[in-house]
Amino acid sequence: MLLSTLRKYYIRVSIPLSWGRSTTHIAKSLQAFSHVEADSAWQMLRVAAQENDPAICAELFENALEEMHHAALFREKASSLAQAISVHGSHYRKPLYYRGEDIAKFMAYQYISEKDIHRQFDAYAASSPDPSISRIFSHIEADEDGHQCKAYERLLRYCTRPQATRYVAIARLKREMELLSQLGEWIGGYTMNCLLAPVYFLSGIMLRTACLERLNNAAWYNQKKTGDAWRVLE
Questions:
Q1: What is the dihedral of CA 84, 85, 89, 90, to 10 degrees?
Q2: How many angstroms separate the CA atoms of 36 and 40, rounded?
Q3: CB neighbours of 21 closer than 8 A, spacing ≥ 6?
């Protein structure tokens, strides 16, 4: 819960700055959101294909359709901002549910995920410098609010309320660990860039003299070779 809250405030502070740099940067971010929404639909369709209750299958299928609609909204906006980037491409997907597992755990994880996405999209809607993008996030945020309510209702069909509370706590811990892992990757990449930047800078300074000398020698050799060739012709 702590990391999710911190992430929400980080979005509010960083997005006006990072998305103000270029439309290509915004387009790549929206493309990533499109992949996330499409992946969510894929996960639900996998569960629906293994579910025997027609009512739950119908709910999951409807939810998946809405997620695909969200993916299309992000993809179309990304395409309009930067025609040069690929908005289709391939995206690795890892199944969150396998046949034979406790489906209540998947439902709990879906509930927590929808809740987190709702909070994040609210932050993106409030901080985006582009009003048209804010409207997209606000529209999807309203849908996600309904999704999290339905996800919890489905969870209660598979277990008692005390069990649901325990499953939700486990799912919350799993989400927090995922966020912590993402944060660690970001810090590691940022730290590595900070360490390598001065190394590259100093290397460039040290190699500059040698490179210039080599270029000058090559120019002198080519000039001498050309002069010798003219003398042979004479």
A1: 160
A2: 6
A3: none
pLDDT tens-digit readout, 125-148? 999 989 999 999 999 999 988 889
Model pTM score: 0.72
Rg (CA), the chain: 27
DSSP conformation class of 20: T
The closest alpha carbon to 32, from 47, 12, 18, belongs to 18
Cα angle 61, 66, 69; round to 5: 130
- As a whole number of angstroms, the distance between CA 126 and CA 133 comes to 10
**Residues recorded for the chain:** 234
Rounded Cα gap, residues 176 and 170, in angstroms: 10
State percent of the chain over pLDDT 70. 71
Q: What is the pLDDT of residues 151-163, one digit of tens each?
A: 999 999 999 999 9
Dihedral sign (CA 171, 175, 181, 184): negative
201/76 Cα distance (integer angstroms): 40
Residues 63/44, Cβ–Cβ less than 8 Å: yes
Q: Please check whether residue 106 is in contact with residue 167, taking contact to mean a CB–CB distance below 8 angstroms.
A: no
